[in-house]
Every structure is written in structure tokens, then in C-alpha cells.
Design a protein that fits this description.
The structure is a single chain. The chain is of the alpha/beta class. It contains 10 helices and 9 strands. Strands 2-1-6-5-7 form a 5-stranded parallel sheet, sandwiched between helices. A two-stranded antiparallel sheet has the order 3-4. It has a two-stranded antiparallel sheet with strand order 8-9. Helix 4 links the parallel strand 5 (87-98) and strand 6. It is elongated. Bound molecules: S-adenosylmethionine. S-adenosylmethionine binds next to strand 5. The site of S-adenosylmethionine has 20 residues, from strand 5.
Length: 269
């Protein structure tokens, strides 16, 4: 995969994408990340990328010309052919569709991904209408610029690329993963994979830290009990923190029993 990040602050990315899994994925050639400076596509002495809004109002607007020219210089396929060519141009915007794990999985299938970072009051609307394939928001809050959002998306996408995470199974056992285990009509198989739920709680040594003990079942060596406990804990945490996720997945018979046990621990006995 090649990722291009279009920004007026190329130095911003010196830190966030140069550590851990992302750095190793770059070194292994799994992904190439290029940061494209919008100011290279200006022609005036001050390298101006913004201008006043038509109709008046607060702040400045990122001009269309440098954004169009920068993306055109990347020589992608015409917009109508991009999906088939496994290319995607994304405009970061609080007005976009909400980013989540399924969007990350979708973007992980493309071969070329362009992330356009807005600034100021936003980007001239023609960029979203005629240049980008989609607008994506990372959440219902307003950031000062699209750079943090681009870093979030790049991170979430890259860790899904084959070979990026040492133990690939671990990306299938994380929160939100709704892969084969949660196929419609089948429901999650109640394995340790999240099946669209939040992840189960993790513990490591020591078993007793300042009097706080790990749950006995995890040191019991009984794998069936551990699997059930993890699934029950994932269901409980999802119900507590993100009940909306439960609406989107099909629960197995065992899941329903485990949920009932959460509501009434006596039912577990
Ligand atoms: N005036 C815009 C509005 O109210 O919707 C906010 C513009 S914001 C200050 C500047 C830039 O930050 C946006 O163009 C976008 O690229 C980026 N940005 C801000 N919040 C974002 C979010 N939640 N998700 C993705 N990008 C965001």
C-alpha cells in the first residue's frame, strides 16, 4: 500500500508514524508513506494556501487550487475508475462519515490511499465534491486540522495490512472486529475473538499486584473456563460502555446465557 498525506504541515508527521508497528511496516516494505506539502503547489511569494470565504464570515478557507494540483501530481486514476483500481482519496472533515473499524478494514483493501488534511475553517467544498472519493470524520469533535485524523486513520489501517502486526490473529481478536466469527446468520462463535464486541480484559504478571489479584480463572489452566470468562467479560463491558454495539451483532445461544449470568451471577452456578 502507498499512503500519501496532503498537508500544509509536513513536519507534523515526523513523530507519529515513525514508531512501533508503523515504522516496522514501512521498513518491511508493507506500506510506503509520503507526506506531500501543499505549499509546493502555490505560485506566489508567500506560498499562500488560504483565502477569505465567499459570502463573508469567520476565518479563512483552504484554496482548491493547491489541493487539486497536489493530488493530480500523484497521478491516480480518474475519480470514476478509482474504486476498481483500488485507490481512494479521502478528505478529513468533521462533516464526513464516521470512521470506525469497518471503514479501516475497507481502506486496508486499497493499494493507494490519499489523505487530505484540512485547516482553518475548512477546505473549499469543491475538493469534497469533485476531487475526493469520500469525506471521513474521526469523531464528533472539531480538531484544528486534519493531521491528527490522518495519523489516526493511517495507524488503524496499516495495522490491518497482512504482515504489519507480528501475530496477525491478534488484530482479529480486538475490540470491534466483526470478521468471520460474526457472519450474518451465524453470530459470533463465542471464541476469544471479539465478534464485534469490545475486547475482553487482559492481565499479566504478577498475579498479585499490591493486593490486587487477577481473576482466579485465568490462572486455573482450564481453557474452556477461561474462554467462557473472557466472552462473558467482553459482553459485560460492551453492555456497560457501548450497548449500541450489541444492536449490530447477532448473539449466539451461549452469548445470551453469558449475558444472563452477568445480570444474575447466581445463574452461572
Ligand atoms: N469549520 C469546520 C466545521 O465546523 O465543520 C471545522 C474545520 S476544522 C477547524 C479544520 C480541519 O480540521 C478540517 O477541514 C478537517 O480537515 C480537520 N478536522 C477537524 N475535526 C475533524 C474530525 N473530527 N475528523 C476529521 N478531520 C477533522
Amino acid at each position: 500500500m502507498q499512503i500519501d498525506i496532503v498537508t500544509i504541515f509536513p513536519d507534523f508527521f515526523r513523530g507519529p508514524l515513525e514508531h512501533g508497528i508503523i515504522r516496522r511496516a514501512c521498513e518491511a516494505g508493507i506500506v510506503t508513506i509520503a507526506v506531500d506539502d501543499l505549499r509546493e503547489f502555490t505560485s506566489d511569494r508567500h506560498r499562500t494556501v488560504d483565502d477569505r470565504p465567499f459570502g463573508g464570515g469567520q476565518g479563512m478557507v483552504l484554496k482548491p487550487q493547491p489541493v487539486f494540483e497536489c493530488v493530480e501530481a500523484l497521478e491516480l486514476r480518474p475519480r470514476e475508475e478509482r474504486a476498481r483500481a483500488k485507490q481512494a482519496v479521502v478528505l478529513l472533515s468533521p462533516q464526513g462519515h464516521k470512521f470506525d473499524q469497518s471503514v479501516a478494514a475497507e481502506l486496508a483493501m486499497v493499494e493507494r490511499l490519499v489523505l487530505i488534511c484540512g485547516r482553518y475553517e475548512g477546505v473549499d467544498e469543491r475538493v469534497g465534491m469533485f476531487l475526493a472519493d469520500r469525506e471521513i470524520s474521526i469523531g464528533d469533535y472539531v480538531l484544528s486540522g486534519g493531521e491528527l485524523a490522518a495519523a489516526v486513520i493511517a495507524d488503524a489501517v496499516i495495522r490491518l495490512l497482512p504482515g504489519a502486526v507480528g501475530n496477525e490473529a491478534s488484530t482479529r481478536q480486538e475490540s470491534f472486529f466483526a470478521g468471520r466469527d460474526a457472519a450474518p446468520g451465524r453470530g459470533p462463535s463465542s471464541t476469544c475473538g471479539s465478534g464485534g464486541l469490545l475486547d475482553y480484559p487482559h492481565y499479566t504478571r504478577p498475579a498479585d499486584f499490591r493486593g490486587m489479584r487477577v481473576p482466579e480463572v485465568l490462572v486455573s489452566g482450564n481453557h474452556q473456563d477461561i474462554r467462557r470468562w473472557r466472552r462473558r467479560s467482553a459482553l459485560a463491558k460492551t453492555l456497560r460502555n457501548r450497548p449500541d454495539l450489541l444492536d449490530g451483532i447477532e448473539l449466539s445461544e451461549e452469548d445470551r446465557r453469558l449475558l444472563a449470568e452477568n445480570a444474575d451471577p447466581a445463574a452461572a452456578e
